[in-house]
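Lab notebook: predicted structure, single chain.

Context: the supervisor wants predicted structures on file for every construct in the current expression panel, including those that have not yet been purified. This is the next one on the list. No modifications to the sequence; it matches the entry in the shared construct table.
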Amino acid sequence: MKISISKENSVPVNTGCTGIFFEDINYGLDGGLYAELLENRNFEAKDVHGHIGEYIVTQDGGYAWDVFPEGAPVAVKVKDDRPLFVENPHYLRLVTQRDGCGVSNRAYEGIFLKKGETLRLSFWVRSYDYRGKIRAGVYTKDGAVFEEKCRLHADGQWHRYAFHVRAGQSCEGAQFRFILEKAGTVHIDNFSLIPDNAVYGIFRRDLAELLKALRPGFVRFPGGCIVEGNTLANRYQWKLSVGQPERRRQNWNRWAIHGAGEEGDFRSPFSHYGQTLGVGYYEYFLLCEYLGAKPLPVVGLGIACQYMSKEAVAADDPELEVYIQEALDVVEFANGGRDSVWGRVRAEMGHPEPFGLEYLGLGNEQWETKESEFYRRFEIFSARVREKYPEIKIIGTVGPDVGTPRYEEAWAWTRKNLERDPAFVYASDEHFYVAPEWLYAHTDMYDAYPRSGLVYAGEYAAHVPGVAGSLAPAANVWEGALAEAAFMTGMERNADVVVMRSYAPLFARIGYTQWSPDLIWFDATRAFGSANYHVQRMYSLLTGEVSWRTQTDTQGTYVSATSAGDITYVKAVNATDSPVTAEVEGDFDFGEMLRIVRMAGEPGDFNSPEEPEKLVPVEVAPTAARTAELPPHSFSVLIFRK
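Prediction complete. Output recorded below exactly as produced.
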């Protein structure tokens, strides 16, 4: 096999082109990256079911809480009179008729702590006449992991109680409990239990570190379908996600009904999945700073999810101004001075300096219909944003499915607008969840793309038939990851067209998954990257600043090459069942092979909690200056130094 590299027709590479698409799906944020250990901590949970255009939302504030001990003479009732916070008015009235009773929180599959780990515990209590002590802590069947006691103020006012606690033993599957030592009545609300090692006191450390190891160029947030909502009221409203966390009005998550069918009364197993907004737009921008990534917030255009609703604000309706202002104000929140309305909000939250926003996504994956009027409304939004903020790069969309007539029509509309106004969009978002065979067949897809419109491959993944919908780590088999690596050689060869890319979805909590495959899997005890994660990381870390024209003479192999300074990275995928000897040649001096970074495995292999590193990159010493062995079903990066 010969790999030929040529300086002819080289193109520049956006060195931050590999990014992150982050949507709260699969409990990836609440129950995931947000380090809060307790579930339904403020009694605002909602039970949601329904179908297109008909969604029934029922307040179910007692969800995830149980009487303790089981069967004890305890009465609980969720109330909302004289609330602690009017934005989230529900709290729990707890009445115990026996000493030592209370409530417990299931905390997803239970709390995992290591001995010596420290945490911050807090909660609010209102007592009118109970003057006894309370106990709060984490417990196993063998006793307390930690326990705090305090006497309450019995003055009829809400009081916050806060503790710094240490785990006296390791635990897994443990409960949080709140106990009245004596029989009595209290009102309780806004519990919180966050480990001290959380990044910025917000982000679960192991998940945040996995993201940082990707070295992403950007982070797209909050979606995804969450941007649009299953109804317009359900859409992500970023202004409700900033300010004091306790005052951020909780929303239901549109993924709470995913997969719900008529046979189950249109109710899914995750009907209580909510958005607490404990991580909102301010925390999102902080996450981008921690990762060294550029933020790419996405705002809605006044259309609910077209798959799940027909609701839309007409393009000529004055109400559309509300949505336009949301788009304008997010730029002000990120970049405005302290003398601006939303810049002042940011400064008061603790970040006086601007976040330096460069990108803004307008809409998710809408398409043109008579009802949606998508083209017209997008043109209005793009013009208004660029009129006020000409420096902002607009990310558009060409619909939910590459290769369809509506995708072709959307590109024709986009290019027509770009001819008239080159700043109409910076790049257009393409989505494709496809079989590995499709990816192999389309590795040259971008070779023939017109250069009159840039691409953001915003959501893509290989879905291997038979395993993709398993909702478990087995969905991320090597067969799919290898096909993605091959397809990405085509993206890299055409770096002048594909300027941004992000795999989707990002996170999946095991046992709480609505969609698979996913990049990172986790539970209460551990987190690990899938094979697909490691492919993304290799592309992110081992890519240069200029992409060379490359070709291979062997069927079933796929290549690309980039350079930065005196280092050249040659990516080579061998998708065949046999080893291949690759000889690299070029029309310029790129030196000798310095090292090889490689992933290889059987097509059905995958990383799991039991074998989290079954498929990871390994470094291999080269045996020749320009020649390397490519094992079957392998992805290699051959690194040369001049």
